[in-house]
Each structure stands twice: as structure tokens, then as C-alpha cells.
Amino acid sequence: MRKSVFATTALAALTLFVSLWSAGAAGAMTVWTEHATVKIRRTTSPKTSQTAAVLKAAKNEFEAFQLVVTANSGALSGVDVNVSDLRDDHGNTIPADQIMIYNQAYINVTTVSTIQGATGEWPDALIPKKDAYFGEVRNAFPFSVASGRNQPVWIEVYVPSTAAAGVYTGSATVTASGRNPVVVPIQLTVWNFTLPSTSTLKSAHSIDYHLVPVGHGLGSYTSPPSSSHLRLVKLYAKANLLHRLTTNYLPAPQAMGGVSNSQISWGPFDTTFGPLFDGTEALPGGKLPGAKMTSYSMSFSGHDTNTTFLRGIATHAKAKGWFDRLFQYTLDEPSTSAHWQTIRTRANALHQADPELMAGVTTSIQNATSNNAAGLIDLFIPTIRFMDNKPYGREPGGEVPGGAGTIGNQRSKYPQETWWYQACGSHGCGMVGGGVFDSEGYHLDWPSYMIDLPAPFSRIMEWMSFKYNLQGELYYDMVYAYGRRDPWVGQYDFGGNGDGTLYYPGRPNKIGGTSHIPIESIRLKLLREGMEDYEYLHLLKTLGEEGYADEQVAQVVTNVYTWSKNPLLLYDAREKMGTRISVLQGGANPAPTPSPEPPPPADPGSDPDPDAGAGAGSGTDPDPDSESDPPISKDPDPISKDPGPITPSTGESGSSSGVQFGGCSLLRTTGEASPPMEAVAYLLLFFSPFCGVVWRKIRVFARLR
Q1: Does the structure show a pLDDT above 50 at 5?
Q2: How distant is the alpha carbon of residue 78 from its chain centre?
Q3: Where do the domains of the chain lie?
Q4: What's the half-sphere exposure (Cβ side, CA atoms, 13 Å) at 613?
Q5: Number of C-alpha atoms within 13 angstroms, CB side, residue 591?
Q6: Are the C-beta atoms of residues 353 and 382 closer than 8 Å to each other?
Q7: For domain 28-195+587-668, which architecture applies?
Q8: Mind listing the pLDDT tens digit for each residue in 303-316?
Q9: In terms of pTM, does the model score above 0.70?
Q10: Torsion sign, CA atoms 428, 431, 434, 439
Q11: Residue 698: helix, strand or coil by DSSP?
Q12: Can you name the residues that pair with 472 across neighbouring β-strands?
């Protein structure tokens, strides 16, 4: 009888516990973490064992991770995120004001860029909790999360150049209405070397200043520009510099100050933009102190053959110390005899004005040679595809875009200083890469900034720039959609989602606050990660370790269209490089707390959305790419392929750090469940003091029946 009573009591207690626990879990909030080189979709399965973030970074570097809030069942409201200072054991602090917190906004993709993409909602725009430009609190927090959905938060740490090397700890705290706070531990290892503020890899990432005020609903750009338009244009230039990129396309100095007798009045231009070239413009939060723009594309419209005008630009640039960054964007993607004649005319006048002035053209050396103009071009900027083309075209037996002469590594045919660029040929201009008009898959696997492609596509190009010994990268526009439609609604241009657009217009009526600001995309953040990866590689080279740097690149990249989509390989290579540089610099390698090893993700570049359509289907029209495109890899290294477990680097210190892949690793719980009977025993032990009360309730209930 006593056994029966105890069993009944235990069963009642267990039932009560389970029912209470279930009631609490019905609207439960799950908080988990992920590294930065993955895109979290609305219905990505929560990785509940990932409960903390472990970052590694150099001084003067940005490093990010993602904190994801999942509404398991039942919507969440009033969700907010706060981050503490990060402190080491010696009293050093990285203050919380050096940590940016962004809510990730989703954009709906209705047509895939390539079959490696997918339709549905994709995270891209990053709306700051408190913006870096004016310090205004925006409307991104608190937020709500629909039942069964994810809301990722991007947390970006800037390590000041003055920070002491060591291991710092802190936390992020997530709160929500009616929910208990969740604390997420953060561990940051700061290596004992510093990245330069001015990028070693040059860039010319244009921001069409005519479109900036249009995108912000401030009317058409005027010439000369209004003070409000000019302030906003400069803010975008500063945003680019903050992301280690240069806005080479700036308002014409002759439009700002006027021109007389072929001589520009430079005063207004120098006052506005000179500090960006000189490294005297303070960036938000004092980040990247002394950063300088690395290129300037001269404005020569209407003065193509005016040697006095062109010579005046050269003279002024030399006097200001900008000449090493000055070039003429002579013509873009020439494809007709008339184009080549224009190049000859402009380049001849340019060199007559000053033989040291550089004529830059986005073309291949094969194309220039066949048109008898190679000798006039000082700066070749071929598309990435024509630097190392695929050996096949879009259709079986079809012509290789760019010509057979571009197949294989072409670097040795170019001058010492050569840049390159990516364009719509990376995904298929006016077609779906890998679709019916691209049966051979020529337009797959090239580096690409498309929204619906996995995150590594936006980060890998700089690793390739090092591999091919390229000195700069060019991109035609970062705000193209501003002049086409509301970028918050759609960015499908030239057959790709996000082609030519890496910013969103931060209008106060959209993001709150009172001031207009540029809103960065995840793709822009990943591009900066790539620029910082390049600095690691270059540092190794300057320290006499170019061979070691090449080994790390080879771990990730085979050629322009054959590379690993698994970000953990990239993080592993980056950690090895950071550790090696620390040792070469003569400092001790900080030993972080060991963490358990997680298995690599099944889909390393982007987590699939079960509700999204697959990236199949046909394009609209055959590719009208003016440069005749190159082919795609038959050895696809498919995104969905699980590359198997990765063995993490233990570093030079000899202490294992788990899978802390340089940029971000994720602390996991062991995931081991207690044996069922042991769990029951603990429950009975816990509820034993309440047995009398429970038994009395059961007897009352029995009498009522």
C-alpha cells in the first residue's frame, strides 16, 4: 500500500512538473549563436547547443558574430539586446561603445541569382540599435519575433589599436516581455599585432553620388551640390572608408569650385574630401585612425583632350600627395571599334599632359592587344573570369566567354600593378546562372555579392586577390538600386539580387531617428572581413612567410571558380595565420579558455529556408554581357556538400582552443542527456518535500468525484 501511495504521489508530482514545464516552454525563447560567415534564414533550425561566442582578432580589426533569437512556439515581443564591456584579467577594457549591435532586416527574393541561390526571405540590411554616425537611437530595438521564426542580431566588436593583447570576456544579455533574461558569454582573444588603418589592397568601389539623395527621398542631385546633399555623399564615403573601401567616384571638383582657363578652383573639394585622402578625417568612434582613401578617379568629362586641364589635375594631386592614387577611368568594358578609338584619343591626351598619369580600362589584355591599344593602358582591370577562365562555355561545345586565350591563369601576361573586378558575369547577366541558358553552369561559383548566395561568396575574393597577386579591386556601384526602386523592397538588377547595391538608404521614416545615414548590408560587412583577411596574408608576406600565407590560401582556394564554400576552413586558416603572426612579432600567444568542438555545419555558407523555393528555373534572355562571359566549374565544390569534420588549429601556445576558427567559434554544451531513471530519481528527490501536499490534493480530488 505504501509503495502504491509513493508511486501515485511520484506520478502526480512528475505530471505536475511536466505540465508546468510545458506551460513555461509554450512561449519559450531560444537564444543561440553563430559565426559571421553564414546567413541565418527565418526558419533555420536553432543550434541550441551553441550558447556563447568566442572571437579572435588583431588590434585595429573588426570581428563579428551573430546572436539569434528564436520564438519556439508563440510570438515574442519587446526583445532587446545589450552588450557589456569586455575585460581582461589585468584591468584592460574594450568598452561597450566599441561594440555595434544591429538588427538584421530581411528582403524577399522572388527570382534567384543562380541555381546556388534560393527564393524567399534573406537577411541583408543591418539596422543599428544606435548608429555610429550621429549616435542616434534607431527603431531596430526592441523587436518582435513571430512564432516559429528566427531573428538574428549582428554584434560587431572593434578592437582599438591601443588595446592590450590578451583574453577579454563579457556578455550579451537578451530580454523579452514576460521572459527570463538570457545571458550569452563572449570571449575575445586579442592577438599582439595591429592591422593597418589604410588598406594594403587598393579599392575603387564607386558610390554614384547622383543617386544618394534620390534614394533618401531628398530630391535630385544638383550641380553644384547643395550642402545637405554633399554632407550625405561624404557620409557614404566615410562609411566606405570605415569598411576599408575607397569611394573613387566623387563629385567633380570643377562642379564644386568652378573652372577658369582650364584651371580648377580646388578649394571646396579639398575642404570636403581632402581629409579622406590625407587620413585626417575622424571616423565614427575613432575607429581606423588615420585611414586614407586608396584611389581617386579623376573627373574629366568635357575635357577629354584638354591637356592643360588634365595637367592641372596631375599638378594638384602631386602637391597634395595624392598622385599615387590618381587614375583616369578611361573607358568601361570597350566592345566596339568606336570604344577603342575613344581610348586611344583619351589615353594619348592624358600621357601628353603628364606621362606618369595612369589610364585605367576594364578589359582583358587579350582584348586590348587585338585592338592595338595594350600599350596605351597603364592600369588593366580585367573581370575576375578573364584572369583565370573556365575551359568551357554556357552550352556543350559553346565558345568560352572572353575567348579561349583567357582559359587558365593569365596573371603573367599583365603588368606588375593590375587590378580586377566582378560584375554580372559572375552570376549571369539577364539569366539564371546554371539555368536553361547556362546548361554547363559557366555562371556558377565565381565570387559574387548577391543577396541570395551563401555568405562566403562575398568574402572570398580578397583571398584570390592575394593568390593572383592583384593590387586592387573595382566595383561599379554600391547604390545602383537607389535610382531604380526602393532598395528595401527589391534589388534585382542585371540578373542578380543586389548587383550594384551594397547599401540601403537609412531614411528616418524607415529606421527612426532624425538624421539620414547609410545602412550597411551583411555583404558589405563580409567584404570588409575579406579585406582584413588580406591584411593577414600580406603581413605574413612582409614577415618573410609568403610560403606559409600561400599554404593557407591553398587550403581555401584552388582558382577563381574552385574554392571551398565551408567557412570553417577559412576561419581555421585565419586562426593559423593570426597565431603565426603573433609568434613572428615576438609576443606571447594569449591562451583562451578551451571550448568543446562543434561539428561543421551541414550547409556551411547559408542555412536553408525550408519555405524557400529552390534555385532552379530558367533565365529570361540569353546573357547580353558585353565582354563575352567565361565558363563555370564542373568540379562545383557544391554548397550543400558537407566537407567533413575540420581539425582545429591548436595554435603555437600548445593549448587547444576547440573550434575557435580565428574569427568566431561557438561554445557548445556537451548535449549529453541524463539516463531516464536517473532523471526520474532526481525529480522524485526534488518533489519529496511536497508529497504530503500533493497527496492531500489527490484525496480531495478523489472525494469530489
Answers
A1: no
A2: 28
A3: 2-24+678-704, 28-195+587-668
A4: 13
A5: 8
A6: no
A7: Sandwich (2.60)
A8: 999 999 999 999 99
A9: yes
A10: negative
A11: helix
A12: 202, 419
